[in-house]
Amino acid sequence: MNTCAPPLVDQLQPLPLTATTPGSTARRRVLAVGLIGPGRVGSALLAQLRAAQPRLARDAGLDLRLCGVAASKRMWLDCDDPELRVGLGSGAERAQIWRPGNLDEFAAHVTGDDGRHALLIDCSANDAVAERYADWLAAGIHVVTPNKLAGSGPLQRWHAIRAACANGGARFRYEATVCAGLPIVQTLRDLLDTGDELLAIDGMFSGTLAWLCNRHDGNHPFSTLVREAHALGYTEPDPRNDLSGMDVARKLVILAREAGWPLSLEEVDVQSLVPPELAALSPEAFMQRLPELDAPMASQLAAARAGGGVLRHVASLDRHGHASVKLVVLPAAHTFAHTRLTDNIVQFTTRRYCDNPLVVQGPGAGPEVTAAGVFTDLLRIAESLGVRA
Ligand SMILES: NC(=O)c1ccc[n+]([C@@H]2O[C@H](COP(=O)([O-])OP(=O)(O)OC[C@H]3O[C@@H](n4cnc5c(N)ncnc54)[C@H](O)[C@@H]3O)[C@@H](O)[C@H]2O)c1
Ligand SMILES: N[C@@H](CCO)C(=O)O
């Protein structure tokens, strides 16, 4: 939800992404795009792509062609159509012709047979989609995703994805898997590529838990706040992934692997806020029993306050591969105590940034900012494309 007034910069002419003369076709590139997972993030991204298409064509010579949208059971092809409505609500369904979902057909359709550049965006939280990345990349299709399952899943699959990129030349970007739209993966990449050495990463990596810690002041039951965070699009599709600490653990694994450390999810020491008796329920049954978290969370809050501290969800990773995720009590003067709303904060301690770590901070969850992170990845790939079609 974006409640900010339009910034002044919107009134200025945007700068070109590449050195094109407006209207010139000298550097005009076509990028065919398919979106998988039109949920909260996917729908926000569709809206952003639609809004940016004319500007990108005019100022950057980039012809962004939205060729299809695939949901869990059905897909819609040939949707490079100004009438395509975003959000895919009931009105949109009436306006579109859906076919049964088939990711092979979907990828082939986006790729086309005219040698154009093709890019698939996975905005699902589905492992079966992540399982396809290596094949798509090997076939020359670029992949962009906020889905953490490939980056934090089996190491063998992760290596296959990296190998497919190295061998096939297609690019895989996943900035939005860590802290939504914040530049975390790219910052780490830049540090390492310029010869710095990572010593540790510490911070708050959950927008949902940051927001819950900020809002949980004793005036509202914790369960009410979790429902609100879900409705605002901050949580994972199943909020237990946030409350269990597993979503943050996945982010640590993604960053560790980026640094070349072969960390696996099982190696992260994670403290869960979900009691064992609620862990195996269906998502719907879990949401019904959410109030069972109210009393334990109220008592954690009271204990923190009694000691003059605040509750914060903190994660750490060091160069020996030790990774931990937990709810802690911090002194009210601590840097992490002064974050707002869904703020994430990530501290990189490196050989260069040693006495005073490099810090990135800002909103770390929500459809708009996450979609913007995905869009940025798309643009980074588009910048590197040659003219083909
Ligand atoms: N919401 C955030 O703030 C945020 C931030 C960073 C990353 N993410 C990640 O972005 C992704 C999407 O999150 P969301 O909040 O939009 O979730 P969502 O549940 O709103 O959307 C997911 C969509 O994927 C679809 N889907 C599921 N399986 C599919 C399949 N096999 N093929 C095609 N579509 C399928 C679902 O039907 C749904 O429309 C997740 O991987 C999440 O971890 C979300
Ligand atoms: N559910 C996640 C989204 C961003 O990855 C969070 O709250 O941080």
Automatic annotation (TrEMBL):
NADPH binds at K148. One of its GO terms (molecular function) is NADP binding. GO terms for biological process: homoserine biosynthetic process; lysine biosynthetic process via diaminopimelate; methionine biosynthetic process; threonine biosynthetic process. Transmembrane segments: none annotated. Pathway: Amino-acid biosynthesis; L-methionine biosynthesis via de novo pathway; L-homoserine from L-aspartate: step 3/3; Amino-acid biosynthesis; L-threonine biosynthesis; L-threonine from L-aspartate: step 3/5. Keywords: Amino-acid biosynthesis, Kinase, Methionine biosynthesis, NADP, Oxidoreductase, Threonine biosynthesis, Transferase. The active site is at K251. InterPro entries: Asp/hSer_DH_NAD-bd, Bifunc_Aspkin/hSer_DH, HDH_cat, HDH_CS, HDH_short, NAD(P)-bd_dom_sf. Its EC number is 1.1.1.3. It comes from the Bacteria. Its cofactor is a metal cation. It is an enzyme of class 1 (oxidoreductase). NADP(+) binds at G37, P38, G39, R40, V41, G42. It catalyses: L-homoserine + NADP(+) = L-aspartate 4-semialdehyde + NADPH + H(+); L-homoserine + NAD(+) = L-aspartate 4-semialdehyde + NADH + H(+). Residues 37-175 form the Aspartate/homoserine dehydrogenase NAD-binding domain. L-homoserine binds at E236. Residues 183-379 form the Homoserine dehydrogenase catalytic domain. Pfam families: Homoserine_dh, NAD_binding_3. Belongs to the homoserine dehydrogenase family. This is Homoserine dehydrogenase. It comes from Rhodanobacter fulvus Jip2. The gene is thrA.
